[in-house]
Design brief:
Blueprint: E1 12-16, E2 19-23, E3 30-32, H1 39-53, E4 68-70, E5 82-88, E6 98-103, E7 109-111
Antiparallel strand pairs: 1-2, 2-3, 4-5, 5-6, 6-7
The structure holds zinc ion (2 copies).
Domain TFIIS-type: 71-111
Protein name: Transcription factor S
Zinc finger (C4-type): 4-27
Length: 114
């Protein structure tokens, strides 16, 4: 509970770009919440997710012969029912490898989200 030092309105907690702020709903005054809450871990997790989302898969990293799935996974881009799949170590070595899919029709590549 904190009141705005400018206008005295009760401040509202907000999360902007992974940082916690207290924002005044009346005049817009905002201040960063630095102490008490374990913000570090959460911020770290967000960073991790952003990095994973931006993974670029180069074609030469995709194995030549891939097992094919039919009517199990559908291409999110064109809706085709046949996809190739493989796994790749994208994170730390002690974490399980990530499964990737490649559309047999349009060649779109995406990763499996658990
Ligand atoms: Zn205010
Ligand atoms: Zn496709």
């Amino acid at each position: 509970m904190k009141f705005c030092p400018k206008c005295g309105t009760l401040m509202q907690p907000r999360r902007i770009n992974g940082i916690n702020y207290l924002v005044c709903p009346k005049c817009g005054y905002k201040e960063e919440v630095s102490s008490s809450q374990p913000t570090y871990k959460v911020a770290n997790k967000i960073k991790h997710t952003v990095r994973e989302k931006s993974i670029v898969i180069e074609n030469d990293k995709i194995p030549e012969t891939l097992p094919k799935l039919k009517d199990v996974v559908y291409c999110p881009k064109c809706g085709h029912n046949e996809v190739y799949y493989w796994t790749m170590q994208t994170r730390a070595a002690d974490e399980p490898p990530t499964r990737f899919y490649k559309c047999a029709k349009c060649g779109y590549v995406w990763r499996e989200y658990e």
